[in-house]
Amino acid sequence: MKRIIMMVLRNLLFVPFGWIKLCWYASHVDCYTEEERYALLKYIDKRANQGGNLVIDAHGVENIPKENGFMFYPNHQGLYDVLAILAACPNPFSVVAKKEVAEVPFLKQVFACMKAFIIDREDIRQSMQIIINVSKEVKQGRNYLIFAEGTRSKNGNHPQEFKGGSFKAAIKAKCPIIPVALIDSYKSFDTGSIKPLTVQVHFLEPMMYEDYKDMKSVEIAAEVKRRIERTIQQNGGWDEK
Question: Which residues, other chains included, contact 145 with Cβ-Cβ below 8 Å and sequence gap of 6+?
């Protein structure tokens, strides 16, 4: 919360304009292209990061497929995760967000601009329909992000179990799966610190459909988690608990 307050205070002159424009875009999403909406989100995100003493250290951007229609699967550390990936990724993408965070101010408007799907994990029928809808949109060339852990880790840079069901949309779409390793993202909003912070975002080599078509969803989940954990270990994030 302290860092969020600092973001606002250091952008005091920009906040009214940025907030009004964000709300307008969120309320009129069909009046703007996905590229226009994404450009606005990246600009607001950039201003917020500068105000909040946050630096995004992006790696592996070249691993993001040139053609759209892929899915990101990052480890989940906290509320800042999507904003960190947004800052690092040049390609527009949307998210599947749980309903518990869908009403958080600012994130609510960001998700609206992204035309995100809001999932109720207790409603199995609704969850299955979202998987179908996401797979259809990915086939049509949209990019999506899903947190396969379902909820954020309470153990810093150490991911929880990745759930196989989260990968059913990618399997149905037969699309590239891009594991994303986040390091120190949880320190942004969840530690109470306002010290300068570098958050690492690693886009790993994609798993193409040919690589995982014969694997079960739980096997895909385990492999994606393994790759992310290895990257975290190799880049200094593993010692902290």
Answer: 71, 72, 73, 74, 82, 85, 93, 94, 95, 96, 180
